[in-house]
């Protein structure tokens, strides 16, 4: 029996549906668990959804992290993984054309080599690593525009994605929607601004996306990633080509005045919409490559090629981004630069959640009434047609037309004056007698 099999038997795990709940009870985010175990955040998510299961030492470490609070933990400090709040760099695509996974085979993420981190006093603490200086850049405020999630407990720095949702079983539909809107809308407006370069359109896209989410709230509430559902709807509305016909959104807004930010802004808007969206989802939001491909409705190799092409265009406009040697460093620099650009620009504040819900309900009532009116008008026109239509078929009369090729009409010709006198003489005589045979003409 191999070592991994023995370790798996020695460290039993709960069912996938309980793993996420146990992690949230211990106030741990996916990124913190991934850093402690030495894997990526996508791997932790696949463990919680049941697509894959940890093995070997990673299984033991993961079992210790999500163990129930009442279960005794080993006292050996060497076996307990350390939790830090240091942000882990997102993995970059391994090659321009990644290998497509075989259909039916669960796709697992490649684990990253774990690096020793100084422990903190409590899981979820916001204490920074001594090796990571406080530079005052965008890296200090990742939750402002990163893939947002519901607010965690006080004193917790949650930079994970929206799958780390809090327990909303005791909230009403309005309260759950308001919580999602309050936590997600401001950062989503800034993301949409980077996507379109138009402040008014970014706010309009986010509000329309949340209005659609409220209309379909039973579907959105049970979604695995409600904020991702709203983000996809906002991106689709913002990238609609019909906005070019609107005078207010025909041209982008004024670019930033600072030269470096303006160069980055121009390079971003020069990209095609699909490439720009892929770059934002991967380097700003923090999705992995398969999730980025799924949200952009593309294959994984196509998403990787778009990402590499977009990075090449941005690096060409900004030579300072070409200094890092590894793709991970380029991804981290783009994450900080794009985030700083979004935070530095003034974007309109979205409307309150209650206003968005009211507008959504008013729009739904309007469309419902319009549909009812159209159906009623259609029924009325059909009834009128049935009432006024004839009950039997009457063949129409063919119009008269001239017939050619017929000989002229025959018959008696016009009498001459002599024939007229003869006709009168015959009519004056008796009907019988020799005079009829040889009439005498005066």
From TrEMBL:
It comes from the Bacteria. Residues 17-29 have a biased composition (Basic and acidic residues). Residues 124-134 have a biased composition (Polar residues). GO terms for molecular function: DNA binding; sigma factor activity. Residues 1-37, 64-170 are annotated as: Disordered. PROSITE patterns: HTH_CROC1. InterPro entries: Cro/C1-type_HTH, Lambda_DNA-bd_dom_sf, RNA_pol_sigma-70-like, RNA_pol_sigma70_r4_t2, RNA_pol_sigma_r2, RNA_pol_sigma_r3/r4-like, WH-like_DNA-bd_sf. SUPFAM superfamilies: lambda repressor-like DNA-binding domains, Sigma2 domain of RNA polymerase sigma factors, Sigma3 and sigma4 domains of RNA polymerase sigma factors. Residues 20-55 form the HTH cro/C1-type domain. One of its GO terms (biological process) is DNA-templated transcription initiation. Residues 100-112, 156-169 have a biased composition (Low complexity). Keywords: DNA-binding, Sigma factor, Transcription, Transcription regulation. Belongs to the sigma-70 factor family. ECF subfamily. PANTHER family: RNA POLYMERASE ECF-TYPE SIGMA FACTO, RNA POLYMERASE SIGMA FACTOR HI_1459-RELATED. This is Helix-turn-helix domain-containing protein.
